[in-house]
Design goal:
Elements lengths: L16 H18 L6 H8 L3 H8 L2 H8 L6 H5 L10 H13 L4 H13 L3 H12 L14 H21 L10 H17 L5
Helix pairs in contact: 1-2, 1-4, 1-8, 2-3, 6-10, 8-9, 9-10
């Protein structure tokens, strides 16, 4: 007689780090090529050679998959959400405060590292996708006046944010890098507000 088979272990199987890494690699490539909206979980699964259900198992939602693929430790939509309730003519300052609340927090090293990684890996489209399609996407419709200018406004705001991230936190230009955050917000807020509601080519 053969010995009885050992009873299969119950419960959730431990995560396979190789599989998770393969999914993230495929996700980074597709998000960089196609952007957030045009990248599906199914396409990422196909690129990684796994079932789509496994992608959801590891990451839950497509948004979380994106955040993990760019190694951002905080969901920017939650940071920006309170800004969406602010009167449009006051959004610039509140947006600056929200963004700097992350950059000046314990998340700063991870944000800087993610930006460096994307640029060093020749994946600048990931930064564009992150800023325009994830961080600022819900703000665009609010400032689309005259109609058709919303995307340009978002890109102008993104240029200011990306430039500040590079010059203050990566290149550490002085005296900009040491400027008190309250003073920096006072300087940046009017520019953001002008981009959001001022005249732009239509």
């Amino acid at each position: 007689m053969t010995a009885p088979r050992a009873r299969a272990r119950s419960g959730r199987r431990p995560g396979n780090q190789d599989t998770r890494a393969r999914i993230l690699t495929a996700a980074r490539k597709l998000f960089a090529q196609n952007g957030f909206d045009k990248t599906s979980v199914r396409a990422v699964a196909l690129g990684a050679g796994v079932d789509a259900a496994l992608v959801h198992h590891y990451f839950g939602t497509k948004r979380q998959l994106f955040l993990d693929s760019v190694e951002i430790p905080v969901d920017p939509t939650r940071v920006i959400a309170p800004v969406l309730d602010i009167p449009t003519d006051e959004v610039g300052r509140h947006l600056a405060e929200a963004v700097f609340s992350v950059w000046e927090s314990s998340h700063r090293p991870a944000v800087v590292a993610a930006f460096r990684s994307a640029m060093a890996g020749n994946e600048p489209n990931l930064i564009r996708t992150f800023l325009v399609e994830v961080v600022l996407r819900d703000l665009g419709p609010r400032v689309d006046q005259p109609p058709g200018t919303g995307m340009l406004r978002m890109q102008l705001v993104a240029s200011q944010m990306a430039g500040m991230l590079v010059t203050r936190y990566i290149l550490e230009f002085e005296p900009l890098a040491s400027l008190p955050i309250e003073d920096l917000i006072d300087v940046i807020a009017p520019t953001l507000q002008r981009y959001l509601t001022g005249p732009v080519p239509g």
